[in-house]
């Protein structure tokens, strides 16, 4: 039998989930208004243990430098770079906010979470080579992609990525692009460092081992948040003026518990992942890049094949994958009942229609689940022809929940991006979806703050603080080449990265 205690003191803000999104929003709100009280609930015993953990994501600072799925080819053969421009600009905002934190707070926990790792795209076959050539031409017309190199020369590409070219057929048609300004980010380390800063501020409390059971909207617009202490079963209620649901794959069930009209029709499709992790130091030492290829037809963006140099806790790592899988869990530490429990009357039709329109994805996932070690090795050898099985071990990656939502024309659509659901009165918001998520956290939270705190956001005081945290706030970097150079030089210096000038950009 659970015991019930008296309610905790009223708090201004409740953050559900101790991941990169909650950390970003919490710090941002405290910078905007230091008097705000913030309470954070996390079901695990440590921050950033799910989607934000270094081993559960690619660690790519998503800038659209190498991610080919951000630049689709139109029916007329031209390349649509609109999403790439948007993501590149959003990542610049993230770097500016992180630079602001490192400049203002001399705390080692938020240092060395980011490193320059060249971002490269690699394709095989004449059709894909032509796509990459057109993509390069379209992107380099923007200052955000200045300095990107393109090559079809196997010798030059071998210099960029020797492991990828060793043993490759010299007659194979290949091409690659290279952007030296690419980054590797340990989002787990960054998130924990941000929570360290947040907990140092007055009026902030962080509760681990606490799971949110219920959300109730009070008549006065506030929220009653019921939590259970998973260590002793004690239940507590907290009254909050604003609630943010940033619980990764766990956000959808919590959003459904809010019963806000805006949540109607949303569903989720879980996709799990696995990596091949290199265990041979000699092989790891020979690769210094994030090399992205093209996704298989019908596969989700999180399954785009990539050979990743990572720096995790100061140690260089090498991963290949991810290999997609299927689990009914919404979190890596979740329950197999997560998917069936999320199905409600309002989202049954969108989920069925989205499923019928994505049969190729279902087929792809079935194939992935049935893969043998030899199948995974064969996929690796498409990118590393001389890969040896004994140099690699299988590691479990994170769990993602792709968004399914209503669509008037199609009944339901499967979204592969990030979606923010906000109540009409702005008192509650939830973040759903996956990539590019963490990399664009600052931009997403800037937008959320302005939607949920409109009156305060319009004041000169908050506008000035927005610009202090993100100096290019209100600007469109793609339209201001000089500002691109200025901000990249500044953030590279403050984050202790190589400057664009040193990279020859």
Automatic annotation (TrEMBL):
Keywords: FAD, Flavoprotein, Oxidoreductase, Tricarboxylic acid cycle. It is an enzyme of class 1 (oxidoreductase). Its cofactor is FAD. InterPro entries: FAD/NAD-bd_sf, MQO. GO terms for biological process: tricarboxylic acid cycle. Pfam families: Mqo. Its EC number is 1.1.5.4. Pathway: Carbohydrate metabolism; tricarboxylic acid cycle; oxaloacetate from (S)-malate (quinone route): step 1/1. It catalyses: (S)-malate + a quinone = a quinol + oxaloacetate. GO terms for molecular function: (S)-2-hydroxyglutarate dehydrogenase activity; L-malate dehydrogenase (quinone) activity. Belongs to the MQO family. This is Probable malate:quinone oxidoreductase. It comes from Hymenobacter psychrophilus.
